Amino acid sequence: MKKGISASKGYAIGTVFIKEENRVNVEKRYVRDIDREERRFQRALDLSIKQLQRIKVKSEREIGKDEAEVFESHIMLLKDEEFVGTVRVKIETGHINAEAALYEVIESYMKIFNSMEDEYMKERGIDVKDVGNRVFSNLTGWNFSLNRIKNDKVVIVAHDLTPSDTVQLDKSKVSAVVTDVGGRTSHSAIMARTLEIPAVVGTMDMTDSVKNGDLVIVDGFDGSVIINPDEDVVKKYRIKMKNYNREVEKLKFFIDVETVTKSGKKIKVLANIGKPQDVEQVLKNGGDGIGLFRTEFLYMNRGNMPSEEEQFQAYKYVVEKMKNKPVVIRTLDIGGDKKLSYLLMPEEMNPFLGYRAIRLCLDREDIFKPQLRAILRASAFGNLKMMFPMISSVKEFLQAKNILRQCMAELENEGIDFNRDLETGIMVEIPAAALEAEELSKYVDFFSIGTNDLIQYTLAADRTNEKVSYLYDPMNPAVLKLIKNTIKSAHEKGKTCAMCGEMAGDENSIPVLVRYGLDEFSMSASSILKAKQVIMKC
Ligand code: PEP
Ligand code: MG
């Protein structure tokens, strides 16, 4: 048995699928606009070269000059006129998409290398494939490793899963997730909860302990994984699964029940989502609205930024689906453990303390403004609010508001409708904001406490690092003081205080949050019904 950290509740019994590099399935399409296709190809090439240059520098520094040479050969291939030219000719003459053209050329190169006797030359074939995969990934945002799952219902075992890996998981094929590294509030753990897939993270060496096809039991409650269990244990777990499903059934009673504490305070229980389709789960679980839409997932698993129009359609879809219930859209929070393959970001010593969220957006109006315009446009279609992540001071909030005002003025001039009184709040997830809540509450329309980050910054314990997870405690008195101060400050100015960090859905923390007067609780849709039950006992 392996012990890890319980990241998403539930039980699963299934066969192991180890995450590894994978073959790709390329679709060949007819394209009319060849110029556009060539530009797409060029962009992916440029980006791949830049990435390889960075990897080369890093490996020279960390591994050695000789070992880093391989990346130079990758770069040379991407600059090779014959290689690149052949892909272009294929796009032009065949009117085919760049990825299909690229793969045809790669396959023909590999055939040549593979037919050679020399081992060294054979290996060059693998290099070509590797480079091709990188360009392909930059063209499409496709992630290679998890797309080979054919058998239904496997347990994915991985050293780590990126948030973009997790968001791509198909529930019909994946019954659980187990990783070597990670903490309860790493974004991949949060996404597993959103998808209602049981998960155990931080097992340290699970990938070394199993092989493909092993039978495992994943216990998402106590964070354990049993490898090749005997029949009795399997039987015991089948009973546990049955009982759990029965309990889940019972909780359905709370779907349409208004959440009121014993002293009569009405409390909203909302959901956190990462993509528009997650709305289904929210409605199924009787959520009072969306308390956090993590918009960064719209930007992942693709080759370029989503346009203003695309974002507008996504936000409008969510807000309309939720009828008149509130939907809080959070502006882009990229950085930390969330990366975009096509956005070159500086290598940082401390990504969680670095160029992230609102800091990046204030610096990159070209990225920020299209999103703000999309949110504003969608605000005409329902009960939409917005908030900024990682605000650390009044000044930063006012800067963001200023850009928002510019977008409003633009739309006004263009005669496009939006809600002029759009409520604008902030995430309180940096200790400085919690300490300055009294001042900030004069300017914002609402607070939403982001405990996932607030806890890691207050206790200096990386949320994704299993080695320090023992320090990561929502009930630490320092954390509680900050939460209490934030709620009190909001209420003194007549503002609402919500919480959208994972603590809001934690059964053990809910009573204390109710006591502090928290108005809204936002969590993974799968936690809503249990949370309602707990609140109503308070
Ligand atoms: C938080 O920090 O609590 C939060 C909700 O935001 P994220 O988990 O996306 O950082
Ligand atoms: Mg956060």
UniProtKB/TrEMBL annotation:
Principal subcellular localisation of the protein: cytoplasm
All residue ranges annotated as the PEP-utilising enzyme C-terminal domain in the record: 254-537
Keyword Cytoplasm: yes
Listed cofactors: Mg(2+)
Catalysed reactions listed for this entry: L-histidyl-[protein] + phosphoenolpyruvate = N(pros)-phospho-L-histidyl-[protein] + pyruvate
Gene3D superfamilies the record matches: Phosphoenolpyruvate-binding domains, Phosphohistidine domain, PtsI, HPr-binding domain
InterPro entries: PEP-util_enz_mobile_dom, PEP-utilizing_PTS_enzyme, PEP_util_AS, PEP_util_C, PEP_util_CS, Phosphohistidine_dom_sf, PTS_EI, PTS_EI-like
EC number annotated for this UniProt entry: 2.7.3.9
Positions of the PEP-utilising enzyme mobile domain: 152-223
PROSITE patterns: PEP_ENZYMES_2, PEP_ENZYMES_PHOS_SITE
Compartment annotation: Cytoplasm
Enzyme class: transferase
GO molecular function: phosphoenolpyruvate-protein phosphotransferase activity
SUPFAM superfamilies in the cross-refs: Enzyme I of the PEP:sugar phosphotransferase system HPr-binding (sub)domain, Phosphoenolpyruvate/pyruvate domain, Phosphohistidine domain
UniProt keywords, alphabetically: Cytoplasm, Kinase, Magnesium, Metal-binding, Phosphotransferase system, Sugar transport, Transferase, Transport
Segments forming domain Phosphotransferase system enzyme I N-terminal: 3-124
Keyword Metal-binding belongs to the record: yes
Family: Belongs to the PEP-utilizing enzyme family.
Function: General (non sugar-specific) component of the phosphoenolpyruvate-dependent sugar phosphotransferase system (sugar PTS). This major carbohydrate active-transport system catalyzes the phosphorylation of incoming sugar substrates concomitantly with their translocation across the cell membrane. Enzyme I transfers the phosphoryl group from phosphoenolpyruvate (PEP) to the phosphoryl carrier protein (HPr).
Stated name of the protein: Phosphoenolpyruvate-protein phosphotransferase
Organism: Clostridium lapidicellarium
